[in-house]
Amino acid sequence: MFPSVGLRAVLRSSAGVFRDSSALGAAVSVRPRACSRPALFSGPAVSKVSGSFAVPPPVRHYARVAKKKKMGPESHLDDLSPTMLKMDYAAVPLAQSTDDLVKRLLSLELANHREKLELKKEQLIAKVQRDENDRNSVEVQVAILTARIRNYQEHLQKHHKDKANKRRMLMAIDRRKKLLKNLRLVRFDTFEKVCEQLGITYTFPPEYYRRATRRWLAKKELCIKVFKAVQKQRAEQKMQQRLGTTEAEEAKAPQAQTT
User: Fold this and answer.
1) 47: helix, coil or strand?
2) Cα–Cα distance between 142 and 173 in angstroms, integer?
3) What gap in Å lies between CA 51 and CA 30, rounded to an integer?
4) Which residues face 48 on adjacent strands?
5) Residue 51: left if φ>0, alpha if ψ -120 to 50, beta else—which one?
6) Are 176 and 142 in contact (CB under 8 A)?
7) Mutual orientation of helices 138-158 and 188-198 as an angle, nearest 10°?
8) What is the DSSP letter of 61?
9) Which residue in 137, 173, 186, 198 has the fewest CB atoms around it within 10 Å?
10) Full-prediction pTM beyond 0.85?
11) Mean pLDDT of 153-163
12) Contact 91, 119 (CB under 8 A)
């Protein structure tokens, strides 16, 4: 009997709760909640069903940033005009008087990279050569190496894992450095002219390539002291030899007078 009484009490309380919630829903359906539709929502109208208030997700219209095109590295062949004739046809007079289609076929517009590089090399040689027939001087060799080095640098910017061409570039840089060093010692005016015409910045090599440690500094100081002591001994020996020769000459002079 007691369990049935308790169950009835629970059912009555739950029925009262359901009655109150249904009355609240009816009140909401009679007086819907006023809401202003924002301008950001571009979807359909908000559905107003009794007991529900469904809002669609907002549609956001953001302005997309324009993608920047990746610009490649600047080439040292960009200053060559596409209307210029190739090096093989530049000295041919017939190529200058042909029609536009043939000129375009013979111009740099349809030339490959090797032909452009040859023309660029000839331009650099013409800036520093001594005369028209000069093809083997130090200045011409520096110009040829400069064109080759710049071509390697442009290639390695795109293909930085090409170890073979990197080694060739470093060898060409060392060769050009030796030529410029000798040219600077022999003819400084020509050295300055070559650097100015080719756009080369000559940097002096470091005085010492090895790391300066305490042991190395102490050894260097000891070597300098030994070198100075040896030079001093040699100078004293030379002075003694000179004194000996002068004394011998003075001793021979009176003997020559008496004879």
Assistant:
1) strand
2) 10
3) 10
4) 53
5) left
6) yes
7) 30
8) -
9) 186
10) no
11) 92
12) no
Can you list the pairs that 202-211 forms with residues at least 24 positions away whose Cβ atoms lie under 8 Å?
A: 205/177
Q: Residue 176 and residue 143: Cα distance in Å, rounded?
A: 9
Cα distance between the two ends of the chain = 173
**Residue type at position 65:** V
Helices (H), the chain: 2-30, 100-106, 113-128, 138-158, 163-186, 188-198, 214-258
Q: How many angstroms separate the Cα of 86 from the Cα of each of 55, 81, 108?
A: 71, 11, 6
Does residue 16 contact residue 39 with C-beta atoms inside 8 Å?
no
Q: What is d(CA 109, CA 102) in angstroms, rounded to the nearest whole number?
A: 12
Question: Sign (positive/negative) of CA torsion 185, 188, 192, 197?
Answer: negative
Q: What is the mean pLDDT of residues 74-95?
A: 83
CA distances from 18 to 12, 23, 29, 95 (A): 10, 9, 17, 101
The pLDDT tens digits of the residues spanning 123-157 come to: 999 999 999 899 999 999 999 999 999 999 999 99
| Token pair listed for 37 | 């539709």
What is the rounded distance in angstroms from the CA atom of residue 180 to the CA atom of residue 177? 5
Q: CB–CB of 198/146 below 8 Å? A: yes
Q: Rounded CA gap, 237 and 230, in Å?
A: 11
218-251 pLDDT per residue, tens? 999 999 999 999 999 999 999 999 888 888 888 7
